[in-house]
Every structure is written in C-alpha cells, then in structure tokens.
Amino acid sequence: MREHPDHHDAELLLRLYDLRREEKLRRAREWFTHEFRAQSPEEFAQKCPPGSEPNAYFRMLVTYWEMVGSIVNSGLIKQDFFFQNTGEFFGVWERIKPLIPSARENFKNPHLYKNLEQMAASYEEWMTRRAPGAIEAYRQRVHGTQSK
Asked: Where are the alpha helices (H) located in 21-148, listed in sequence order?
C-alpha cells in the first residue's frame, strides 16, 4: 500500500467536498447540526416521520456519510489524509449512535450504517493519538454536556 496521499486522493477528497456543497445536502447538514436531537426510536419517529422533510434530510445526510465511510474504509482514499480534512461525520455518528441498535433490529440488518460506525471508530483512535482529550471535548459539545 502506498505510504503518502497522491493526486487521486486529492481529487476524490475535492469531489466529496463538492457533493457536500450540493444545495439540498447543505440544507440537510444545517438542519442536522442545529435541529436534530433524537435519543430514542420513538423520539425519532415523532421528529422525523416518514415522508417529512426532516426524514429526507436525515436519510440524505446519513447515507452520504455511510457512502463516504465505504470509500474510506476500503482504502480508496488515504485515511489519514481524509481525517486531516474533516471530522463532521464523527458528530453525525455521535448523534445517531443511540438509534442504531433498534434501526438494525427493525430493518433486520446488522450491517446498517456499519461503514459510518467503522470510520468513526477509526477517527476516534486517530484523533486520540494526535490530540488526547479532543474526542471527549467534542462529545461534550455535540451532546451539550460541556461545563460552563
């Protein structure tokens, strides 16, 4: 395996960034960051019912990061290079993590969102080596539990 990122990694990273800039995905990212808070399947069903705009935003954003996770986890882009340029997916994973066990059970799919989960776990290890304490501080911000 090659040691350093090359122009293919850079081209793919820029393409993934361009996709994030698509207008509807941008709105979905904004909604998720500022409004999505669901800690249970019941709360998710109430806030994001099927056919609603929040449900569409959720599906669009989470499946985007699941797709990116498949690219990163498969080694199609150098993981270190990718992680140097974004950690947004980690916040997405942290917010949806409580919903995943029941979603996997409901869909009878133990692999549902596994690419995103694996990428988030790798990022956590990577970040812990680079900046001990940063992940916990990030979790506190994402979950609104930081001390004031």
From this structure: 23-35, 41-47, 53-73, 79-85, 88-96, 100-106, 114-130, 134-143
**DSSP category for residue 111:** T
Question: CA–CA separation, 116 vs 63, rounded Å?
Answer: 9
d(CA 101, CA 121): 16
The 10s digit of each residue's pLDDT in 7-26 is: 999 999 999 999 999 999 99
DSSP tag of 5: -
Q: What is the pLDDT of residues 51-86, one digit of tens each?
A: 999 999 999 999 999 999 999 999 999 999 999 999
By C-alpha distance, which of 62, 55, 124, 53 is closest to 87? 124
How far from 125 is each of 37, 101, 114, CA to CA, in Å? 25, 22, 17
**C-alpha span between 7 and 25 (Å, rounded):** 26
